[in-house]
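User:
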Amino acid sequence: MSRITILSDGSWGTALSTVLCRNGHDVTMWGPFPEYLEQVKKTGVNSRFLPAVKLPEPLKFEANIRKAVEGRDFLVLASPTQFARGVIWQLKDHFDAGTHKLINVAKGIENDSLLRISEICGEILGSCDYSVLSGPSHAEEVSREAPTALVAASNTAGMAGQVQELFMNDFFRVYTSSDVVGVELGGALKNVMAIAAGVIDGMQLGDNPKAALITRGISEMGRLGAALGGDPLTFSGLSGIGDLIVTCCSGHSRNRHVGEELGRGKTLRQILEGMGMVVAEGVKTTLSAYQLARQAGVECPIINEIYSVLYEGKASAEAVNYLMTRPSKPEAK
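Assistant: Predicted structure:
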């Protein structure tokens, strides 16, 4: 049994807490809003983010971050990427690199700094044991124990295997990797592609364009990922094509929902207002991915067009037409 704290009361952190409790670990959930966390504790239901799930009785709750991480073995970073820096700063004064091991499960790239979560942790916390857990997984399905496979990547010898052992059971399978960069980028960039897939669905264009989008999307992700230091083969795995397929096709996908509403003619502001506190990571990641691609000198037409739709007011139909009428080229490029 390991002592684990989930640093977030969102849907994904909540779903993973159910997996870890089922596996017999000592699990505590921390959240940024004490009153809401107390409500979750009393009702046994996370009504805001995962309302259909009755939380396991052994799950504990602690609103004080110092108490939440004191004496723990693993800390799971589960807040949305754009809020991660604030949480890590709160953690800083209570973090013990000799005791605490970090597991990141967020999928995104920070705006402005263009840093991945591992880089933010290094900047604020210094050298530490770090792993990222990512892959095709929706909280709604994991919480009802649907068969799921993910990948854990770490640069620390043996840590990916420890994460694998923590989470694995008869419905939750974990593979290991040493490619932290590739796994983090795969989980982040696929959210941009999911917005594009949603645009296709919102415009009711059919299956052909979505298949083309997924195929060309993974090619684009692999090019950019390799330029940024990831292993191109990683994008053919669970955090690449696997996560891309599920988030482009699932009704659970928040990013696909954003694209679908764009395709129906709604503005980004209208869409985000309608989602309330629910976060679609791809909206912010699009901005970071666009900037990273320009810095790296990598051609990323899908990312460019989604950026134009989200941030420059370009019509969805115009973006689709541009992608279809670009100059011809070999498939391998």
